[in-house]
Specification:
Number of helices: 7
Distance between the termini: 57 Å
Structural class: mainly alpha
Shape: elongated
Largest sheet: 2 strands, antiparallel
């Protein structure tokens, strides 16, 4: 239960594990990039930290923007809920915030499984680690990482967008966050029909409002992943290339 609003089974749309990427039981035995000493466990950890930090920051900013604009939209679409007082706005904002924070937690938790699933499929020319010293071609390795990161950024943004599932998530969140008014509990059939019709239109409008916000997040993920790609490549090279 979130702020008195029950979390129904259909909320599993954004509470579900990461989508099946076709890489089940991935074997992440120690490997290294060609001509380097980059261990795949360490690379997975580095990439996970990189993506988790961006996902957390993007979601924190997006949630703040959504919550800031929510009171205006709520009062616009549900004037009967707030006539004479602001009491019903607060429960809606709290419930909305709890749902969105749950979504953020699920997205952050999905990062490592996605990284581990995609890492073995990237064009990194991985090979078993050896103890033999080899000359490290930093430019070649940087090019490999850049190519791999471009692919991984696209895949991560896409799958995180699928986990958000803006269409279903918006409908579920609004339906579970908007409180009922006294008129919606009336026993008068005619009054109930009018109230229900008005509430349905308002709920549809509010759902579309939230859908617009949620559908933009995937693009923001990709933009931020791409913007910081050189930083993570530089970090990996500094952390994992061992001088001979």
């Amino acid at each position: 239960m979130v702020m008195g609003v029950p979390i129904r089974h259909d909320q599993a749309v954004f509470d579900a594990p990461a989508p099946d990427t076709g890489a089940q039981n991935v074997d992440l035995k120690p490997y290294v990039l060609s001509s380097t000493h980059i261990n795949s466990y360490m690379l997975s950890n580095s990439l996970t930290d990189y993506y988790e930090a961006i996902v957390d920051q993007v979601m924190e900013t997006s949630i703040g923007d959504i919550i800031s604009s929510a009171p205006h939209s709520y009062m616009l679409f549900y004037p009967d809920h707030v006539s004479g007082c602001q009491a019903s706005v607060c429960p809606f904002i709290h419930a909305l915030g709890d749902h969105l924070n749950l979504m953020k937690s699920n997205l952050v938790a999905s990062v490592r499984p996605l990284v581990d699933a995609h890492l073995p499929t990237l064009p990194l020319k991985m090979m078993p680690a050896t103890n033999e010293a080899k000359t490290v071609d930093v430019v070649q390795v940087a090019n490999q990482l850049s190519e791999a990161m471009n692919i991984l950024n696209q895949r991560m943004a896409l799958h995180l967008g699928l986990i958000i599932n803006a269409n279903e998530a918006a409908e579920i969140i609004i339906r579970q966050s908007v409180p009922l008014t006294n008129s919606e509990h009336t026993s008068d059939a005619s009054e109930y029909a009018d109230t229900h019709k008005t509430a349905t239109k308002a709920t549809k409008a509010m759902t579309e409002w939230l859908h617009l916000w949620l559908s933009e997040i995937e693009g923001v993920f990709y933009s931020q992943f791409d913007e910081r790609i050189q930083d993570v490549i530089q970090s990996i090279l500094e952390d994992f290339l061992v001088e001979e």
